[in-house]
Amino acid sequence: MAIEAFAPAKINLTLHVTGQRADGYHLLDSLVMFADVGDTVGLVEGQGLSLRVTGPAAEGVPTGPENSILKAAGFAGQTDLAFSLNKVLPSAAGIGGGTSDAAAALRAISALRGVSLPPDTLPLGADVPVCMLGTAARMRGVGGQVTPVQGLPRLHAVLVNPRISVPTPSVFKALTDKNNPPMLKTLPALKTATDFAAWLSEQRNDLQAPAIAAAPVIADVLGVLRAQTGRLLTRMSGSGATCFALFETEEAARVAALKIQRSHPQWWVAPCQLS
Ligand code: C5P
């Protein structure tokens, strides 16, 4: 039997760093949604563990045991599986690429073999639990406290990565103030994208400033997104370097994506919907 699992881009609409644990991990309060753009993980029975990577972002992606998919397979106690990965998302980009692949691999393994997974997935990545859920959620603790959020409007967005990878640990390390306020109160009812964006504009990504200090091109990406017609909100996702803008309409997002890709052919630009 062949199984396919979609590994969507994970977008941190907000990312508040509210503290740090004694083991160095940071405490977060983050609202996450998922894009309809992402990687695809395929899985069939095999002899030993193997991985074949194809797709527009395949270059440089490891196919050995350091790949998050094979780590996930080992973590789930598997020894004989053949994986394929259609890699679309840029790596180390703040949109969960490797983590979303690992979560998709775990979902595929569970569907193929019916195995139950070890409960503590932190060794595979702090974002694995939210990526396993795959729908809009509030993420707290170091990432393991995931609460689904229902009733949010679908969002039209453009994702832009300047094709630089930003190592997450260095961005967390560069953050000087680690005790910031959490998101404002509980989430109010947000019916339209405009209301939602207005609420989001009062929240933050605390990693944005240290990421820009490490990679100033992120400020250029934000500036280009901010200049687009119909834009509602512009922000960086995760620890960067991918930034997103939300738009009033699908058409506005599509036009903005075309304009940005034309003026910056070297950047990765993806119009998408978030849900
Ligand atoms: O998400 P992932 O586990 O891959 O994170 C990579 C690194 O980012 C961690 O090893 C840690 O240094 C840092 N991190 C953190 N606090 C979190 C998530 C990640 O300090 N909540």
Automatic annotation (TrEMBL):
The keyword Transferase applies. It comes from the Bacteria. Keywords: ATP-binding, Isoprene biosynthesis, Kinase, Nucleotide-binding, Transferase. Signal peptide: none annotated. Residues 193-262 form the GHMP kinase C-terminal domain. Residues 74-123 form the GHMP kinase N-terminal domain. GO terms for biological process: isopentenyl diphosphate biosynthetic process, methylerythritol 4-phosphate pathway; terpenoid biosynthetic process. The keyword Nuclease does not apply. Its EC number is 2.7.1.148. It catalyses: 4-CDP-2-C-methyl-D-erythritol + ATP = 4-CDP-2-C-methyl-D-erythritol 2-phosphate + ADP + H(+). The active site is at residues 10, 127. Pathway: Isoprenoid biosynthesis; isopentenyl diphosphate biosynthesis via DXP pathway; isopentenyl diphosphate from 1-deoxy-D-xylulose 5-phosphate: step 3/6. GO terms for molecular function: 4-(cytidine 5'-diphospho)-2-C-methyl-D-erythritol kinase activity; ATP binding. Coiled coil: none annotated. NCBIfam families: ispE, PRK14608.1. Belongs to the GHMP kinase family. IspE subfamily. Catalyzes the phosphorylation of the position 2 hydroxy group of 4-diphosphocytidyl-2C-methyl-D-erythritol. This is 4-diphosphocytidyl-2-C-methyl-D-erythritol kinase. It comes from Actibacterium mucosum KCTC 23349.
